[in-house]
Amino acid sequence: MVEKEPTPTRISYPRLIPIIVSTALLSSLFTALILTLIDSEIQPLADLRLPSFPSSKAAGTQDPEMDPEDLAILFDRISPSVVRVSVITAEGGGSGSGFVIREGGLILTNNHVVENAVSVSVTLKDGTELRAEVLGRDPSTDVALLRIATRSIPPVELGDSDRVRIGEQAIVIGSPFGFDQSLTAGYISALGRTLRSGDGYGTEIDNVIQTDAAVNPGNSGGPLLNTEGEVIGITTAIFSTGGGFQGIGLAVPINTARAVADEIIDRGYVRRAFLGIAGLDLTPQLSRRLELPVEKGILVQLVHTGSAAAEADVRAGDQEIESPLGPIVLGGDVLVEINGESVSSMAEANRFVQSLEIGERITLEISRDGERIIVTGTLGEQPRPD
Predict the structure, then answer these.
(1) Comparing 215 with 246, which gets the higher pLDDT?
(2) Which of 61, 269, 309, 363 is deepest in the core (most CB within 10 A)?
(3) pLDDT value for 42
């Protein structure tokens, strides 16, 4: 199981765990299977752009309670569209889940399931294994889009995650611990959570859906469904004190994933404006302990070459110290405002910058050696994932 330490800023829990399962764990659960890889013609991407919302549920309406027979009917309808995603990496391998969104063989899953893969395959409900191509990844939203060569797999329907309400029933289908075609059910327990993406830039995923439907290693990338059988999210992580499920599962909203998928279909990647710094979020308490002249802002730890921040001569420090938070580099600028708006975290800065256009001029106010300085630069494009 892969663990990812950064904790969402507005949720304070001990540990964030992306829910994929390693091949070492799989080998202890199953004997080896010999599966045939099948190739056939792949549909051109130009025909695969996602349709508009088909949601059959009116805004503000409450889902009806589902009895066991209703759940069984929903499972029979949706499960052929849910796949196990298996990867081989330089360190070994692992598996997660995914789901088919178009008949042309497009599959949504999590970025963290496939980001280090040297090969990817998916296993269908009938046990058929197919090679998968990674069409694009977006670490900033933890979304990846795959394509398989397939005769016909029924796609899921995508719902509207903006219409989800706390208290509605929620269903998860996936491959926890490699146990394919597993269903769990619960409720939407919270909305509007934020989740640190792990893209290396401090970006947070907004509007994350929280559920108490059981999710475990191997569920990453699978669908979170409403009672209509529409996908409302991609199961992504759990919060846990011991590594197992404790009633808090988190899903990237499907509206976010839909937008990412459309961009990947159009150009192969997601374009975002990029400031070009890595920084430490400051609080008044931390600023006092570090003896900084400002109470809030972002202590610059790294400036990316060729970025807007580099053009503006924003400076990182050169004095590394150890702290309970890990290594901290002192002596650099503190970013306090972007275009006249106060910023106190990397997530705020990224959210603001990504609302702007690539090529747009940007004004930064920084604190350097106790003085406030205004500098400017031109926003570039966020580096693409390898």
Answers:
(1) 215
(2) 309
(3) 36
The pTM is what? 0.79
Domain assignment present for residue 2? The answer is no
Contacts by 310-318 with C-beta closer than 8 Å and gap 24+?
Answer: 310/276, 310/377, 311/377, 311/378, 312/362, 312/364, 312/375, 312/376, 312/377, 313/375, 314/277, 314/364, 314/366, 314/375, 314/377, 315/368, 316/277
Least confident segment among 37-46, 68-77, 305-314, 369-378: 37-46
Cβ neighbors of 349 (< 8 A, separation 6 or more) are 202, 275, 277, 279, 298, 335, 338, 343
Does 4 map to a domain?
Answer: no
Q: Of 234, 267, 300, which closes a domain? A: 267
Backbone angles phi, psi at 291, to 5 degrees: 60, 45
Structure confidence at residue 94 as a pLDDT band (50, 70, 90) = very high
Asked if residue 373 and residue 236 are part of one domain, the reply reads no
pLDDT reading at 236 higher than 60: yes
Domain of residue 282: give its range: 273-381
The answer to whether position 49 is within a domain reads no
Which active-site residues does the annotation give? 112, 142, 220
Q: Considering 252, 267, 282, which residue would you say is the last residue of a domain?
A: 267
Residue 320's pLDDT band (cuts 50, 70, 90): very high
Closest-CA residue to 276 (of 385, 378, 142, 138): 378
pLDDT of 326 reads 87
Task: Answer whether residue 54 is part of any domain.
Answer: no
